[in-house]
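ok trying this again, last paste got cut off
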Amino acid sequence: MRPQDDRLHSPLRVERLSLPDSLALATHSHAPFAALGYGTPHGVAWMPTVNARVLSPQGAMADVWHVGHAGDGTQVRSGTTGIARWRTDGHWLLGAIDLDEAAEGQSLTELAQRAYRDLFRTLDQADTPHLQRIWNYLPRINADGGGLERYRQFNLGRQEAFFEAGRAAFEGAPAACALGIRQGALSIRFLAGRAAPLPVENPRQVSAYRYPETYGPRSPTFSRAALADIGDGQVALFISGTASIVGHETVHHGDVREQARETLRNLEAVIASAHAQTTARFSLDALDCVVYVRHPSDTEAVREVIEAALGAQSPMARHAVYLEADICRSDLLVEIEAHTVAAGRLQAA
């Protein structure tokens, strides 16, 4: 059995709710620990939003995170570290960074490095040293940034910040996604805790941090997924952005339905790989997922693939959030990231 951090006694829980139900949790004297909103209003301090168009018929949604037990007096504090805003209970931390490139006057590489520098400063100061999950959103991800694609510029700055902070940029890198939004700021959202998660890779794919140099001067810095002990005998599986890639190559060019099917196969492979490292048992149809679709007109086709594979009444199909976003490769049409929780424990590393 994997040794547990004896300070990890504040359980973490997440639920996906509509915007009205999310906002109803806050009272004049109390707000939930934190939330990640999809299509939600800007300015809700405990709910940083993803600035992407919602394509789901149910409209704005949020993943609301809770800490501790009801009535146990768990205290949540908020603060800023440089450009990072955060909320923590001392065991878990959810942070947000937003940088307007036009206002800052720096290159995307410089902004990414600056953002991650403050992200790591936040973790150090809050004593929540271990990243569990990161969400990256950058405008015009596939555009030319002056001789180098903007996603590749971002990867340069991100990885340099990992090296600078002495963080694992290869084996042991956190779960993450990187999507292109049509407008707005470079936005980074991050979840951290006191105990290190277990990285998970996909045997069907080359690890992202081992991609050949044809994908840029610096490889992407993330693991395919991560397993985390979240307390109360529960294990969370955080799955990074997953797409129609086999080995390191995009497959099913131009066919969104086949790309969606290949993505589901990759998700299944990640889950199977995770099962080798935990007694918890996860299933594809129970994932809470975010589906990023490059072309809004493809949304229904992707939905049909998911429903045909898992059933229209499966939790994944019913609770999926669909967002308009560009994928990190211009030949990818759809990407899915997800999380799920099950009873169990982590196995020895």
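PB: full thing came through this time. The helical segments are 19-24, 101-104, 108-126, 150-164, 256-275, 299-310, 315-319.
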